[in-house]
């Protein structure tokens, strides 16, 4: 009977932990059950006034007189709002924030998720190419960071007997490993 309780408690606590780790940040939450989170769907209906939550990589930030223009290379987002860095970009869009937004904070290459209202389209250029950008009036945004960790695969120690106090410091062969990137 005690093992059932322990097992239930373990599953319950693990579930709570997983839910907390994958929840949407407060600044990206919306009461709208019909919020558009798919770039292609938003691009098709860009002239409506739907509420939109999309994200990607900041390509350009321009401070205008009364607002700031943020150009973003779209990446699909997860249910927690995080841009998926393993996916290919799906296009570009533009968002406008009222007032001044510091271009150092919103620097090129940062990951961002935006929440706002669709606001038509805008013709502009990407390099020399004419491009129709879907536009949003941004009500809020969330910046993300990429954390990297390295997993190193050591040579198995059972192949080489340990003959001293510091046997792990001896490199008996090649090491291999991999870098794992996570959006946080």
Report on this model:
The chain has two helices and seven strands, in the order ααβββββββ. It is mostly beta strands and 184 residues long. The mean pLDDT is 83. It is globular and about 55 Å long.
What is the helix content? 10-25%
**Helical stretch tally:** 2
Based on CA atoms alone, the radius of gyration comes out at 23 Å
Neighbour order of strands in the largest sheet = 1-2-3-5-4
The helix/strand order is HHEEEEEEE
Low-confidence stretches: none
Characterize the overall form: globular
SS strand fraction: 35-45%
Roughly how many Å apart are the termini? 40 Å
How many E strands?
7
Q: Please describe the biggest sheet, giving its number of strands, its sense, and whether it closes into a barrel.
A: 5 strands, mixed, barrel
Secondary structural class = mainly beta
Calculate the mean pLDDT score and round it.
83
